[in-house]
Design a protein that fits this description.
mainly beta; 15 strands; disordered N terminus; 55% strand; 265 residues
Length: 265
């Protein structure tokens, strides 16, 4: 069970890790370089109608770091227009999260609601800050070791969960995840169902070879509820069917580069 602490350890944690960050800046000889970059675009559909999109860019750095940034816009079932952006940083070798920032804007009937949240990990403690319009929260929470950061309405975060799946064990596997928008830990479950044959007339994502079969997973998570995940042979999530909101996310294009975009590497 997560524990909520007073702001005293929050201040202490911030001071300690600010000092460590300063030490790292002084002793690090060179800034980390970008080893590889992947950029992609999902389209969001319901009953054949396009409702929006989600774009992502993933950078792998030389400092054992992966950074994923994404933006999205979608017309929700209640006619609200939802836009957002987020940034996830985690360790490449362990998959353990370091920090997360997210902002979501909801426009409906002439009103605008803005929801922002930040989460920073220090060992197994997360410093969580949350703001909805002018109402702010700040907490320090203990999380299970290896807890993931997963925001329910960000499809590309499914790949982070897939990286944890033990294919040799198979079956339904459960992980603990922290939802930065909800401010609580929850269970995320993933189950391999089998291979799924693609309709011969269905085009594959631009920039990737078209597979005849996809790996099919069932995904169960807090606010995302239940979804069917389809993964190609290159490891990309090419389609997500979200059951509770009857929405389909389809990967339409991918670009991959050595180094950063625009670099000479």
């Amino acid at each position: 069970m997560s524990k909520t602490h007073s702001l005293v350890p929050l201040v202490a944690a911030c001071l300690i890790f600010s000092a460590l960050d300063g030490w790292a800046v002084e002793t690090e000889s060179e800034p980390p370089t970008v080893i590889s970059t992947t950029q992609g675009l999902y389209e969001v559909h319901r009953s054949g109608k396009r409702l929006g999109s989600e774009t992502f860019i993933e950078r792998v750095l030389s400092s054992n770091t992966v950074i994923i940034e994404s933006t999205y816009d979608v017309l929700a079932q209640d006619s609200a227009f939802v836009t957002g952006n987020n940034r996830l940083e985690y360790e490449e070798d362990s998959g353990f999260p370091r920090s997360y920032y997210t902002q979501k804007k909801i426009e409906k009937d002439g009103t605008l609601q803005i929801h922002e949240a930040t989460a920073k990990m220090f060992a197994n403690v997360v410093v969580w800050e949350n703001r909805v319009d002018d109402v702010e929260q700040r907490q320090v929470l203990e999380l299970p070791t290896g807890c993931l950061f997963v925001e329910g309405n960000v499809v590309h975060h499914v790949t982070v969960v897939l990286d944890r799946y033990n294919a040799s064990a198979g079956g339904k596997q459960t992980y603990r995840a922290f939802d930065p928008m909800g401010g609580r830990a929850t269970n995320v479950m993933l189950e391999y169902i089998g291979e799924s044959t693609i309709d011969a007339e269905t085009p594959g994502p631009a920039g990737l070879p078209r597979d005849k079969q996809l790996s099919h997973y069932k995904y169960f998570a807090g606010r995302l509820s239940q979804a069917d995940i389809f993964v190609n042979s290159a490891g990309f999530v090419v389609r997500v069917d979200v059951e509770n909101v009857d929405m389909e996310y389809v990967l339409v294009s991918v670009e991959q580069h050595n180094g950063d975009f625009g670099s000479s590497q």
